[in-house]
Amino acid sequence: MNRLPGPRDSLSDSAHATLRAAIIDCQIAPGQAVSEAELSARFAFGLAAVRAAVMRLTASGWIAPDGRRGSVILPVSAAHLADLSVSRQCLEPALIHHAPPSDLGAELRLRAAVHHAATLQGPGRQAPLHQERDLMGLIALAVAAPRIRAWLIDTWELCLRADRHLEQSFGMSRDALPLPALAVAVADGDAPEATALLERMRHDFDLRASRALARSAVPLSPAPAPAPRRGAAPSTDHRSGTTPGPRSTKGDPA
After folding, report:
1. For residue 233, is pLDDT > 80?
2. Among 108, 171, 183, 212, which one is least packed by beta carbons within 10 Å?
3. How many Å separate Cα 134 from the centre of its chain?
4. How many other C-beta atoms lie within 10 A of the C-beta of residue 240?
């Protein structure tokens, strides 16, 4: 679920991987309304493949249906950032319950060395986003339970997207994540070191989110208001006098 499309993938799998990567990289902005026809033309996939990919992304909460306009990409809001932080606190301890199998441990050490070499070109140098995703996905394989592993990958990748959005919106760049050290600690079954690295990563993410919220008097990536249905007046929230937006499957206002 964390790899780029390859030659043996079905078209729908390739479309899903491509759209997911574009959302994480903010090529499709948080809160943006999109249609299947637009996505098909932009990413050169057929409508059937795009429709299947959108259904999968909707089921996992990355996008939300938006009536006649198509779909809305999950926005980056204060509630969303708080949910990511709490989710990490719940899911990340699963990494340190057991040492991974020896073959996974060997691959983690090898990939950690390769990833570390990519960040040696200067202080604070970040590896490319796809390399961070790949190493995070490999680290997550240490979680034995498939559902928890999938939730952890989802959460980590949404955090990468949030960081990219904060960088684009507020110029808040971050240093390289200590993923090589985390990979080695997980491979070695070093629970104290892995715990310390995970707590440091969460703390740094929370600080960046707090700084962004302090500088933003409005939602970080508000979605456009929903289009009214034909022949129906817009529904109004009488408590605030505003028209409510659609709800995302993650529980944040879309």
Report:
1. no
2. 171
3. 13
4. 8
